[in-house]
Amino acid sequence: MNRVPSKQRNSNIRRDRDVRALSRLALLLCCGLVLAGGFVFAAQQYFTAIQYGYKSESLRREREKLLEEQQHLMLKKEQAFAPARLESEARGLGLKPLLASQVGTQKAGRSQIPIAPALINPSASFQR
User: Fold this and answer.
1) Contact between residue 125 and residue 118 where contact means Cβ atoms under 8 Å apart
2) Does the pLDDT at position 127 exceed 60?
3) What pLDDT score was predicted for residue 122?
């Protein structure tokens, strides 16, 4: 059954554009772009935070390694300057321990340091 007779001529129908629908689509597109941009920004921040975490962990490991090396070097330094080791090294070089007869004392009454004339008579250095 045909509802439209075949010999009837149909004219082209023109629709009016719905400006409100077009503005709603533009608004929806803008909101979608903002939302997608927000997700991209959040993902970038997340991956940057993970990268900083890895760098921080590697720096922490390097710091621990350097602290261990510093402790090792301090121990070697203390061992190198130990009195027993210094004494054995000195004997190896041909040095002998200090004897009590080699140590001289200075008497309190006599001073071997010469006193400058300016200290005895301060005006002596300013005479013309």
Assistant:
1) yes
2) no
3) 57
